[in-house]
Amino acid sequence: MGGHITQAQADEYAIGSLDTEMERLITLHAADCTPCRELLFEAERVASSLAMSAPPRTAPPRLKKKVAVQAGIRPPGPTHYLIRFGQAAAGFAAVLVAVAALTGMLSMRSQVSELRQQNAELRSEVRNLASQEVEIFALSIRLAEAEQRAAEIARSAERDRELWAAMASPDSDTAEVVAVEGREYAIGRLVWEQDQNRLWFVAQNLPELDEGHSYQLWLDDGGEFIPLGRLQRDDSGTATYVRHMPNGISSYNGVIVTIERSGGSFERRGDAIFFVTNLPRPQ
Questions:
Q1: How far apart are CA 191 and CA 174, in angstroms?
Q2: Which residues, at least 6 apart from 32, have a Cβ–Cβ distance to it below 8 Å?
Q3: CA 252, 253, 255, 258 torsion-angle sign
Q4: Residue 204 half-sphere exposure, CB side, CA atoms within 13 Å?
Q5: CB within 10 Å: which end of the chain, N or C, has fewer?
Q6: What is the DSSP string of the chain?
Q7: pLDDT reading at 145 higher than 80
Q8: Residue 15 in contact with residue 98, Cβ under 8 Å?
Q9: How many Å apart are CA 219 and CA 109, to the nearest integer?
Q10: Cβ neighbours of residue 51 under 8 Å, at least 6 residues apart?
Q11: Distance CA 166, CA 144 (A)
Q12: Residue ranges of the chain assigned to CATH 2.60.40
């Protein structure tokens, strides 16, 4: 035979309605052709499912008598010619049964195709649900980030209000902040709240530091430098620092801002940026 096996040939092969020569040719071709062999397996599987779905029935007495006559167990009666005619009718009926079986196979194949389509649609819906869950998760993350930014803005605004209140308070003193020579572009101001025992330091035009470095605020207590904390510079070069003075400090000579390595020791090692020379003394 030329070419591959068609679906119709595979269905007829599965129900045994092909002539002997065509059936032999198809068998030989399927032995060497994997796609055609799989097509025959699928057709036989559908035919088997259709055959198993038919309920069993008891053979009628006439069929039993006919089988006995054909086997030679019982001699033919006067209706011998009618039996021959019945054989022809049975052959015709067999053709009708084959056609019905083929029709049933086509119907079952259509049902299988519909199930596959429904399965594909269900998978698509599952993918859409998963995509929606991802979008909801992304929106939740963006909402959390927005809430965090809003909280940071609120904290910054509250800190600015407290700073302006400290600068305007008659109980506060403002110290002179002097930039080191060569760094006059940076400006700063120190505010001391005596009633709150709180220190404010504000600086602007601070240059961005190399990775691994930070601005460190020190208290000069007679030549001993006590670390007060780091200045957190924002993108505009501004840093605002506030803290209550450490307990046990009764005197000091000034405040200094230096550049130190992040995570280093609590000893002053870096270059100075600011000096505060007239820091008010505690009462």
A1: 5
A2: none
A3: negative
A4: 2
A5: C
A6: --SPPPHHHHHHHHHT-S-HHHHHHHHHHHHH-HHHHHHHHHHHHHHHHHHHTSPP-PPPHHHHHHHHHHTTSS---TTHHHHHHHHHHHHHHHHHHHHHHHHHHHHHHHHHHHHHHHHHHHHHHHHHHHHHHHHHHHHHHHHHHHHHHHHHHHHHHHHHHHHHHHHH-TTEEEE-EEEPTT-TT-EEEEEEETTTTEEEEEEESPPPPPTTEEEEEEEEETTEEEEEEEE-B-TTS-EEEEEEPPTT-----EEEEEEEETT--SS--S-EEEEE--PPPP-
A7: yes
A8: yes
A9: 88
A10: 101
A11: 33
A12: 172-276
Q: What is the pLDDT of residues 215-263, one digit of tens each?
A: 888 887 777 788 888 888 888 888 888 888 767 665 567 788 888 887 7
* Residue listed under structure tokens 């709240």: 193
Its CATH architecture, for the domain 172-276, is: Sandwich (2.60)
85 alpha carbon, distance to own chain's centre: 73
Taking alpha carbons only, the member of 36, 34, 201, 207 closest to residue 13 is: 36
Report helix angle 7-15 to 20-32, nearest 10: 120
Structure tokens at 41: 């397996």
Tokens representing residue 9 in the block: 């040939």
CATH 1.10.510.10 is held by the domain 1-57: no
d(CA 83, CA 65) in angstroms, rounded, equals 11
Contacting residues for 50 by C-beta, under 8 A, at least 6 apart: 101, 104, 105, 108
> Average of pLDDT values for 267-281?
73
pLDDT, one tens digit per residue, over 23-39 is: 888 888 888 888 888 88
* Cα 242 to Cα 231: distance, rounded to the nearest angstrom: 9
> Which residues of the chain are in CATH 1.10.10.1320 domains?
1-57
**Residues 8/14, Cβ–Cβ less than 8 Å:** no
